[in-house]
Amino acid sequence: MSSKLKNISLISLGIMAGIGASIGFDAIAQKSAGAPLPLEELRQLTDVFGLIKSDYVEPPDDKKLLTEAISGMVASLDPHSAYLDKKAYKELRESTQGKFVGLGIEVGMEDGYVKVISPIEDSPAYRAGIKAGDLITRLDSTPVKGLTLDQAVKRMRGEPDTKITLTISRKDEDKPLVISITRQEIRVQSVKSKVVEPGYAWIRVTQFQEPTVDDMAKKIAAIYAQEPHLKGLVLDLRNDPGGVLPGAIGVSAAFLPKDAPVVSTNGQLPSSKATFYAKREYYANSPISDSLAKLPEAIKKVPMVVLVNAGSASASEIVAGALQDYKRATIMGAQTFGKGSVQSVIALPPDRQTAVKLTTARYYTPNGRSIQARGIVPDVMVDEYADGDGLNGLRLREADLTKHLSNDKDKESAPAAAPQVDELEEAQRLAAIERKRKPLEFGSKEDFQLTQALNHLKGLPVLVSKAKPRLEAEKDDKLDGEKTEKK
Q1: Which of 169, 250, 384, 441 could be disulfide-bonded to 390 (CB atoms 3.0-4.6 Å)?
Q2: Which parts of the sequence are annotated with region: Disordered (predicted)?
């Protein structure tokens, strides 16, 4: 296609968590305002509140009104800022620790229904027979149609050992399936690894969590115990939505020179202007231990390929950007999501059980590149399958999101115009083909991109994609349009 398309189905990245963020947890501080409060607008807000109290058809709940006002105010800023009630705040803390109570499925929205992207292995949903591609139409007796993804996810979460009944629409099934599942604590293994063939290993980070650095160090040690003379390593960050910033710094530090700058941030507050280095104090969970210290020195020099795609976001982009800037690894795959902003989670008084997740800074690669709304462009573009890019080119990216933060170093990061009808038909045709494919298992023998990564490490020919990075394609379309207008 001549220009890249926005995705048809809006896929939410991450395990029941939406789009991953680089998260820092801060306690709230009394900060002096840089400008006087807008008294007239605040007075108008109180006037509207009083009007609702006095004139609305039913007496409203004061707390609910104010909570919704706060929520709407924060959500109006950008797609990643949000007010977190007690339940949402608790779930966010749990997810960064690598665990949560729920069903164990990666989900998105399609045609107003919750679509199962993938069940987590050995989770309650996996054992109950939930499959990738299933559409959830009811949660207990509540129709999903009309709910937001966040509302649906909240209903699927709950207390351990409680049950929920899902009504499932599955392709090739004549009748809806009704499946009862018992919620359990889900422990997400954020790092997977294996020796794919003699001399070559694969490490996959599915999400950056608090245990990620320690888990990866153990995986690397196990690989070297099996393969002392490692010839090449593939770091797989495909569909990794991000997570905690220390995890990204630690993963980068494992492969970069000691004390090298990994990422910098810049925002309005002095505390948001910072540089983070490949040092223990920036990534270690313990102030006295360093899980990376005992790794073989060879890990700093082993030839590397980093696999990324449109689902690689936030912390994944920090790692890919750092390794690319230092020319430590070859980045392969597709252009990444483009989430280059930092969210600080600020607990609110009086009880600090609620919080605001607020975008406080942009982050930059060691060479000063801003990833926001642009992403990381691979050194080598490789399609997801041997016969094409699958749905990767149709996925939603940061630049497609309403009210997305701009790239302060790239004024051309706005998304392309809406696709034309013929392009939509082509997208639908490709999506229909994609639904017939066997779901891709990363790290398997059928993993085309992994095969190309191994070919690169061995010095063998690589089947490079014919597709251009998204922003390059958009620029070409713009130039073509200008030429047409001149004619």
Answers
A1: 384
A2: 466-487
